[in-house]
Design goal:
mainly alpha; two-stranded antiparallel sheet; Helix Hairpins; extended; 2 domains; 66% helix
């Protein structure tokens, strides 16, 4: 019982060490993330803060000149601001007819959240919350499933391409799949940027920025498609193209994220399995095996002597650890013939050495 308790303590200690390594890994990720946030904040501060101050001064100058030129009070000017801001979404047409509502539902399910149009009534807000609670998990599962199918399709294409090129290794590796999905994502973003630049009148860089922000579900809302020239009602083809771009693009991005998450989970599982195997090996290496002799002698699993014993003496090399009661006589069938035919164990029997039966 004492030995069992000892080894249980060892296994528990090794498990705690493994958990400590996992805690260190998690803590390292947290530290790296916050460090990355600090670096990002410093870079954005240096790039945007000065321009923001200049833009604010410019807008304040325009406001003062407008009020002075048209003799408008501050309250009237504030009312004009509210009217202009609230009227902006209606430039796209009715936001809550079926086409606009379907576009809004897609944005909610995809967790993009542009903020270009929001429900105003209490019933609309309540239904939006309930709809999101069901729709967001459903959308995540759908995009994840489509991403897995895309990865499967890409692996088939890669294997056939490698066979056609007579490569030595024809299996599709994770790196091959990541390169394939990365290239497909790049093609979708660059093609979508060209399309939106054509229909929205944006520069190509701004269109590329919009596509990236949309497919990564950041959704700032500073650039939103289908918001000009009554596009929701007058351009049904463009509306369908925008919805296909969002849904298919998110599926491809989900395929890339699926590979990254799978790789990370594989690394975590491999680390946990390796830690468990190390703990088992270390516990097995230190487990004693005791031979039942007059003087107890313990060996570990590697055969090293753990405790002192008076069992050893000058005749040890002729002693047999056997399950029978003999000392290796010639008429015992449990023994193989001796390598030396002239050797007889009667010499041992006649000596003063006292040997007892030993069992494992």
């Amino acid at each position: 019982m004492l030995i069992d308790s000892y080894f249980n303590c060892i296994i528990e200690f090794l498990t705690q060490c493994s958990m400590k390594r996992q805690n260190v890994r998690t803590l390292s990720l947290v530290v790296c993330t916050f460090t990355y946030l600090l670096i990002g904040a410093a870079v954005f501060d240096s790039l945007e803060s000065e321009f923001e101050a200049k833009r604010y001064d410019f807008l304040q100058t325009l406001k003062k000149n407008f009020i002075k030129k048209y003799n408008v009070s501050s309250e009237d000017f504030r009312m004009m601001e509210i009217v202009i801001i609230e009227n902006k979404p209606h430039k796209a047409g009715p936001q809550w007819k079926f086409a606009g509502a379907f576009y809004f539902a897609t944005v909610v399910l995809a967790m993009i959240g542009y903020g270009h149009s929001t429900p105003v009534t209490i019933g609309g807000k309540a239904f939006c919350m309930a709809y999101a609670m069901v729709g967001i998990p459903l959308g995540l599962v759908m995009f994840q499933s489509i991403g897995e199918r895309l990865n499967k399709f890409a692996s088939v294409i890669i294997r056939r391409a490698k066979r056609y090129l007579q490569c030595a290794h024809t299996e599709a590796t994770e790196m091959n799949l990541m390169l394939a999905t990365g290239m497909l994502s790049s093609i979708i973003i660059t093609t979508g940027a060209a399309v939106f630049s054509r229909y929205e009148g944006w520069s190509y860089f701004d269109s590329f920025y919009y596509c990236f922000v949309t497919l990564t579900t950041i959704g700032f809302g500073d650039y939103v498609a289908l918001q000009n020239d009554q596009a929701l009602t007058n351009k049904p083809g463009y509306v369908a193209l925008s919805l296909v771009f969002i849904l298919f693009g998110l599926a491809v991005v989900a395929a890339s994220i699926n590979l990254l998450v799978l790789r990370f989970m594989t690394m975590q599982a491999e680390d946990a399995k390796r830690d468990e195997q190390d703990a088992q090996n270390l516990a097995a290496a230190n487990q004693p095996v005791t031979f039942d002799t007059e003087h107890s002698t313990s060996y570990n699993m590697q055969g090293k002597l753990l405790s002192n014993s008076n069992y050893t003496n000058e005749f040890d090399e002729t002693a047999s650890i056997c399950s029978c009661t003999c000392l290796g006589g010639a008429r015992c069938m449990n023994h193989e013939p001796f390598a030396d035919p002239d050797f007889r164990p009667t010499d041992i029997i006649a000596s003063n050495l006292s040997l007892k039966r030993a069992s494992v």
